[in-house]
From TrEMBL:
Record's keyword terms, sorted: Fatty acid biosynthesis, Fatty acid metabolism, Lipid biosynthesis, Lipid metabolism, NAD, Oxidoreductase
Full protein name: Enoyl-[acyl-carrier-protein] reductase [NADH]
Any one Gene Ontology molecular-function term assigned to this protein's record: enoyl-[acyl-carrier-protein] reductase (NADH) activity
Active site as annotated: Y146 (proton acceptor), Y156 (proton acceptor)
Annotated source species: Oceanicola granulosus (strain ATCC BAA-861 / DSM 15982 / KCTC 12143 / HTCC2516)
Amino acid sequence: MISMQGKRGLVMGVANERSIAWGIARALDAAGAQLAFTYQGEQLKKRVQPLVAGLGKGERLFEADVTDDASMDAAFAGLKETWGSIDFLVHAIAYSDKAEISGRFSDTTRGNFLNSLNISCYSFIDVARRAAEMMPEGGTILTLTYQGSQKVIPFYNVMGVAKAALESATRYLANDLGPQGIRVNALSPGPMRTLAGAAVGGARRTFKHTETNAPLRANATLEAVGGTAVWLCSGAGCCTTGEVVHIDGGYHIIGMPQPEALPKPE
């Protein structure tokens, strides 16, 4: 196992025990890293706090609303006061109005478009800038994306556009922060049974379709995503930056369903 002993980092976006962010946190913890977490509001705090307490390494919790500069200032000031510096940051934050992603993309309202891009993309830019100030000796910044950024996925709509912007931001941030020894990458799991994934219409059919047609005939697992995150956050990932790393059983390379999944000719 890759060792993360002596490394410290912030994980943003844990919602419950099935969150991709939690899968990443568990893998980093198992590798020896010390973690801090953010939450937004008391409801999420009640979900996250018991999970964090179970790790038992003196983990810290900070309230952070990525749409509020004062909240972000306070969260990172608290983190800096606690540790002074960090080695990695995981950004797993995205949002769009569920009612709008279930309709037609062309019906996206201006308000939801701006809100979706603000929370799902700009927050990563803001977080990366703040994290970079706490990485004097370099480090790693990760975010989460999905293949709806590159191909049309039913019911994904404006989130696909937001994820495309996020992937582009990943490349530009990698270029900006590279001279400081900071690597910036995005992880792209296939569909997963998470709280966020359940908000996308047709989630069960999408999950089954991907599992049936991916070269490995399998969807991503939290363990697989966590393991990839550990690799990228460790010295083993020292020359990887600006990448979108797919963890989807290879589904992203497929141009059409597998022969056995095609309808039989009449």
